[in-house]
Specification:
Strand 3, helix 5 (about 90-95) and strand 4 form a beta-alpha-beta unit. The chain is about 40% helix and about 15% strand. The protein has two domains: about 5-130, 3-Layer(aba) Sandwich (Rossmann fold), CATH 3.40.50.720; about 135-150 and about 190-330, Rossmann fold. It has helices spanning about 15-20, 30-40, 45-55, 70-75, 90-95, 115-120, 130-150, 150-155, 160-165, 205-215, 230-235, 245-250, 270-275, 295-300, 340-360, and strands spanning about 5-10, 65, 80-85, 105, 125, 195-200, 220-225, 240, 255, 280-285, 305-310, 330. The strands form two sheets. It has a seven-stranded parallel β-sheet, with helices on both faces. The protein has a five-stranded parallel β-sheet with strand order 2-1-3-4-5, sandwiched between helices. The mean pLDDT is about 95. The protein is elongated.
Length: about 350
């Protein structure tokens, strides 16, 4: 099917769906793989594709060029009308290569990798999208934090005297002639998020969503990353920049929110865990290998760490005899943070519709 629409798209696993939606030459194998990937939330994937194609109008069909590197990006840009990136940078060289560009779409809300001034000088619109997926991951972080803070992983579904006794909470009634009856199982160590300090390692898309929610919870937010944010961004998030050692020492909750890469694997190891204050909680919704597993198990055995929560796993599927499951202060879920799949499906539908509108206008 002939088309004058050329889109250059960074090769992110979810952005590959743009090819399925807009490029009729995308392989049947890829189409089938994604139809299966989304099936438990969207059994009518063909119907979803048809609805998006109707929504984007003349943007379908398009020639979607998937690229992985800066060199591939620049080589693919001649003749293109739109560029969609997540992490690849867009500056003067890219804009020169894509002289016909009308729009650069960031697959996220923070266009830090895009030279917006250079785009404006060329008359190229820069679009962003606040991804539901990132909001869902931030929600999961708080779900896990609240699970540990309220000891829900130990007490959910345990409401009888016998069940609670088996969980280590023998029943001793209060003198109700004088006292109320809240927490009648006498579960000690329940915590409050309000007024506590959260330390976020990496204020990217998900880290910022977590910081926004921490502000709503009345938490003090510290953050660390290689590049400090602008003061206006810090004020908006009510977040204070500190060195990593300070963050680890001062935080009640430590959340690494970083991608897996050679520079981040094992970032939280023995030395970093030793710097955390006794009783602090570690919550990892990024990639499991950001936290050194052997060091983690050592500190859990020592009981210095107040608790640990993880989504996703060190290996998937996991194993029922995983030693992490033996600790009462550990909460683990099987990679649910970004769910449901409609988060991604709706994000991508909105993204494609936004690009189509920008090209038309």
């Amino acid at each position: 099917m002939p088309t004058n629409n050329v889109l250059v798209v960074e090769d992110d696993p979810f952005l590959r769906v743009v090819g399925l939606l807009l490029d009729p030459n995308t392989s049947a194998e890829r189409y089938a793989a994604f139809a299966d990937f989304f099936a438990h939330d969207e059994p009518d994937f063909a119907g979803y594709v048809a609805r998006v194609r109707e929504r984007v109008g003349a943007l379908f069909p398009s020639d979607v060029r998937i690229v992985s590197t800066q060199d591939e990006l620049r080589a693919a840009l001649p003749g293109s009308r739109a560029l969609i990136v997540e992490g690849l940078t867009v500056g003067a060289d890219e804009l020169a290569a894509g002289s016909g560009l009308k729009v650069v779409q960031k697959f996220g809300a923070l266009p830090r990798n895009i030279d917006e001034a250079a785009c404006a000088a060329k008359g190229v619109r820069v679009l962003t999208i606040r991804r539901r997926v990132n909001c869902a991951c931030a929600e999961m972080a708080f779900a896990l934090m609240l699970t540990l803070a309220k000891k829900l992983n130990n007490v959910l579904g345990r409401i009888s005297v016998e069940q609670l006794a088996a969980a280590g909470y023998p029943y001793k009634p209060f003198d109700r002639r004088h006292t109320p009856n809240s927490n009648w199982p006498r579960i000690a160590g329940v915590r409050l998020l309000y007024g506590s300090t959260i330390g976020i390692i990496g204020l990217g898309e998900i880290g910022c969503e977590i910081a926004l929610r921490a502000k709503a919870f009345g938490m003090r937010t510290l953050y660390y990353q290689r590049t400090r944010l602008k003061q206006a961004e810090e004020r908006a998030l009510d977040a204070s920049y500190v060195p990593l050692a300070t963050l680890l020492a001062d935080s009640d909750w430590v959340l690494p929110v970083l991608p897996s890469s050679p520079s981040t694997r094992g970032l939280i190891g023995r030395a970093e865990l030793a710097q955390m204050k006794p009783g602090a909680m570690l919550v990892n919704i990024a990639r499991a290998d950001v936290v050194d597993r052997a060091a983690l198990i050592e500190v859990l055995r020592s009981k210095k760490l107040g608790g640990f929560a993880l989504d996703p796993l060190y290996e998937a599927p996991g194993k029922s005899d995983d030693e992490l499951l033996t600790f009462p202060n550990v909460a683990i879920s099987p990679h649910l943070a970004a769910q449901p799949r409609f988060n991604a499906l709706n994000d991508l539908s909105d993204l494609c519709a936004g690009v189509a509108h920008a090209i038309r206008s």
